[in-house]
Description:
This protein is α/β, with parallel strands linked by helices. It is built from 17 helices and 14 strands. The structure holds 4'-deoxy-4'-aminopyridoxal-5'-phosphate.
Amino acid sequence: MTLPRSTAELRALDAAHHLHPFSDNRALGAEGTRVIVKAEGVWLTDSEGNRILDGMSGLWCVNVGYGRDEIVDAVAAQMRELPYYNTFFKTTHQPAIDLAAKLAELTPPQFSRVFFTGSGSESNDTVIKLVRRYFQIKEKPEKRIIISRRNAYHGSTVAAGSLGGMAPMHEQSAPIPDVVHIAQPYWWGEARQGETPEEFGLRTARALEATIDALGEDRIAAFIAEPVQGAGGVIVPPATYWPEIARICRERDILFISDEVICGFGRTGQWFGCQTFGTQPDMLVMAKGITSGYMPLGGVMVADRVVEVLLEGGDFNHGYTYSGHPAACAAALANLDIMVREQLVERVANDAGPYLAARWRALAEHPLVGEAPMVGLVGALELTPDKLGRTKFPDVGKVGTLARDYSFRNGLVMRAVRDRLIIAPPLVISHGEMDELIARARKTLDETYAELKRWGWVR
Length: 459
Ligand code: PMP
């Protein structure tokens, strides 16, 4: 393939003109970015012709894999027919209508309505306004506080970044008021010595109850959480955690919001993560997998009992130019057709998920790996110098980045979060490709281990 510009030229222009998200742009400019030119199935090709297995589905979104002409054709057809119209002032269009109806069918029974957005961040901003409007209409305007968790990721707009619990983000942009963060259910990293995962799961769940009591239930509007914390490092909660959270949410007058931006659309082996973990959300936040990333789109499903109240309140003063964008909705409809026809959710639950999990969990035997959890097709490897003592490496993040770079050189995209390697491959990944993924991950661990021996960081 001949590119219109050489890789060197592309890198130079990128360094000169492009500010990348979540990057040290000076270091990146000096090092040079990797230019991705095309993709098919689970394979990326870069501008130097390297084929790389995309263990992260882009940014956790390309659930049906790359190269799906069906989605491309649906978008092209829609763009020819009606490339844009809004859904604000008493107008609508068929792609938004069809998608809204489809989502009502696919989501748990308490949901029949969706508010469309353009992204996960916009969806979570919408959640804040919906939650507060709900309690205003119920004449409880003092119920404003939203409880979230440390190390959660809910997006990077001012409000969604505040809901998230990422300290490095809060250091650069102070969170908005009335958001409170409680402990995350990260047993490996945060349990006390001798505390079992079950005990720890209960203790962290009960932090929700304790916080509601400490601040006053009359001031708390909602609790928001990802079923599995994704960007925080694929934190899979102990089995006791979600049932206890579900109990607390049932007993208290607060709304529960499941942020399914990563876990939604099959990732955990059910359509939504709340179904995998048995919770009953009042709002369900979606983006990413709704279109498999082919077009930007997000949404918030709102439970009927909440909608009933909102409908009492007249105008809801909120919306985006691209709420329900017709071409994005067309992409979502084609994507969901593929997921249903190819039974990708069932495939994750009964075939691909168990196949990969068995091999992934075996990586926990590697001397560098502390734990290797996996749910559906999302997993993590905690890297540690001492698995029994659950010790962390000095200079957190250095070993993770080292391993991530080896992985890239081995032709596998894994992401590093602190010293945790994470994967979330496309749901269509074949058995052969999963074997390849495991082989490359193992090679990465071996190379990282050898390097750490040279540093004297492991024995
Ligand atoms: N919520 C969760 C759970 C996410 O993982 C993300 C993105 N990684 C977001 C919200 C924000 O989505 P977006 O980047 O589309 O704004």
